[in-house]
Amino acid sequence: MREKRQAGAGLGPRLMTGLVLLGLVMLSINLRPAITTVAGVMNQVPGVFGLDPSLLPLLGTLPVLAFGVSGPIGPWLARRWGTGRAVAVALVVLAAALTVRATVPALLLPGTFLAGMAIMTASVLVPQIVKANRGTGWWTGLCTMGFGLGAALGAGLVQPLQHLLGGSLPWALAVWALPALVGASLIYRSGGTPWKGADRTKGGDASSSADTNRGGTNVPVPGKSATPLRKQRTAWAVTAFFGLQAMLYFAITSWLAVYLVSRGIAPAESAALLAWFSLAGLPASLLAPVLAGRPGILKILAPGLGLSVALALLGVLAAPAELQFVMVGILGVVQSAGFGLAMALVVIRSAGPQSAGRLSAMSQGFGFALASLGPLGAGLLHTLTGGWEVTFWVLAAEAVVLAGAGFFAIRGPLVSVEQATAAAEPGPQPTLV
């Protein structure tokens, strides 16, 4: 409550809500450049940092592996410090990691791992903040679009920044610490979320989205405890969907530029196409969470996106160099829509803010642990086969499995970690701040 009072002092509810949303968007923009900046210049890394070329697959895997082991940190810190402070600290740590890994070559790998941990700590709290503020699909869409915009800026600006900074690749990577510090200031000022206050409102934590729309509340039912998250099938289906789409995303962003170079495309143009992959998907990452709010569309969208990603991957594999701009753009659209839907499912399929936070930690924790196999597996397949055909066919097969996970994620009861509740009469709604 102290964080809530400090953040909201002198500000009206609408202004505070706008500040929270602005902080969320800025936070989201900061959670991908740490990965895509390196992916866009992967071929330069061994020469500049003295890294053994055989360790490049590990460099691409480390941040995702860090995601997998640091999922519980965000909710744990939020319970002790408040959500805004927890996210702000994570972004400060991210800024430090980006600076250290770029300026001290021996710390490139440890710094990348630490950056991944900081990103995950902040990332898992995004759905919790959205749920606590009763954000619509547009909230989730703006956040997922922020992820895509950050990824595109990281990949597209790394080489121009390198040229602007006198050819220094380390400084072109370290400069991304500055927006991380700006994001930390914004999210700290907003207080992040009133979720602690929402816990004290009548059923504010356990109400489903349907109950909220009706203006009703829930009250605890004595003697009924919540089913553990690990025993809820919907939670595992959402986790599988999140992990599989993340596995595809990180495999693509780690190796797409290298693949395009092997097709005879210049390195600078390949890095630009990697940025285009993210930019092309921005509208889809915004609209997918909005469309997911409509049950009729969701039934088609969840499994359909997996099949679309499979077809797009095979299109990139088969297309000549002149058509890669089109095919990479299509792949960016369907892949970004999949990420937007994955984030939306965490909000839509959870019963309240605490449930959203726990489901977010589970889906992103286990999901990114699975996703860490993407860059490593794709790189090893390429090394073993000497080409890219097998790699792309395996990724397309994974996208088909993603379609199955989407089918099951939208069925079954909502995920809830709160005490079982029953509907009560409609009453006054809690304020956002």
UniProtKB/TrEMBL annotation:
Residues 206-216 have a biased composition (Polar residues). InterPro entries: MFS, MFS_Cyanate_Porter, MFS_trans_sf. The keyword Membrane applies. Residues 197-226 are annotated as: Disordered. Keywords: Membrane, Transmembrane, Transmembrane helix. Gene3D superfamilies: MFS general substrate transporter like domains. The chain crosses the membrane at residues 12-35, 55-77, 84-100, 106-126, 138-157, 169-188, 234-261, 273-293, 300-319, 325-347, 359-378, 390-410. This is CP family cyanate transporter-like MFS transporter. It comes from Arthrobacter bambusae.
